[in-house]
Design brief:
mainly beta, about 10% helix
Length: about 260
């Protein structure tokens, strides 16, 4: 089965036009992965860089984040990010790279710079991304803009994120491979638990739950458009956090590991 998948992917990469890179929005947050991909309504730290830029407005200390995701044993997604408070808001930068260099040459790299601020109880943020492709089919690049909002309705938190809202490239194929992604979600949180519901592009439903079983240890479960997910979080005060997630998909399993450290 693995060989068939590899063969199919290799054929697709070889026959597609030279600049038809896959520049869709990719998520690297491991905590959210364990909760079915949910977090657009409640994320409020460095993870906001890929979940909802608006959450950067709540950043109150300098943080670093490193993650690795293994998708089906075929693709690796590496990420490194930094965030810190700035001018009453939060600034973040990140680099993510999706690659498979063993079976075939395919690599997409994304650089991102983002800023968010809170005004009258409403958080808003914007990010500028530069994406580049290096593959057997050719090379390409694309610049894109992401946007996010967060707020509260009583005890209920809500969030909206629009990724690839604006795309700029000299290649029509590259622009077509960067579809707009719209996420909207709500979340209810207390000292021990977070319950989250999210809708992606008006059709993909995500459900997530996080429960702190003892101080510093949290368990997570979720459904990402019907696909079950599990997660574990270990935390040492505000100094560091380690997150792990597992997703069982139709083509195979996806594992992700992340380390967050306060600087």
């Amino acid at each position: 089965m693995r060989k068939l998948i590899l063969l199919g992917l290799a054929v697709v990469l070889l026959i597609m036009p030279a600049l038809a890179a896959d520049f869709e929005h990719r998520e690297f947050g491991v905590r959210a992965s364990g909760m079915g991909g949910t977090s657009v309504a409640f994320v409020d730290d460095i993870n906001s860089l890929d979940q909802n830029i608006a959450g950067l407005a709540a950043v109150d200390k300098r943080e670093a984040f490193v993650t690795y995701r293994d998708t089906f044993g075929l693709f690796g997604l590496n990420n490194f990010a930094l965030s810190q408070p700035l001018l009453g808001g939060g600034l973040g930068i990140s680099m993510a790279q999706l690659a498979n260099s063993e079976e075939f040459n395919y690599k997409v790299t994304t650089w991102q710079a983002a800023y968010a601020r809170e005004l009258r109880g409403l958080r808003g943020g914007v990010a500028l991304n530069y994406n580049s492709l290096d593959s057997q089919a050719g090379q390409g690049n694309l610049t894109s803009v992401n946007f996010g909002l967060q707020g509260n309705l009583g005890k209920l938190a809500w969030g909206v994120a629009i990724n690839n809202l604006v795309t700029l490239s000299g290649s029509e194929a590259a622009r077509q491979s960067a579809p707009i992604e719209m996420k909207a979600g709500i979340a209810l949180a207390n000292d021990q638990s977070i319950y989250a519901l999210e809708l992606v592009n008006g059709k993909e439903v995500r459900i997530g739950l996080e429960r702190q079983i003892i101080k510093g240890i949290a368990l997570r479960v979720g459904l990402n458009d019907g696909t079950p997910t599990l997660g574990l979080g270990l935390k040492k005060g505000e100094l560091w956090a380690i997150d792990y997630s597992f997703e069982l998909g139709a083509l195979g399993s996806t594992h992700a590991l992340g380390l967050k450290r306060c600087l």
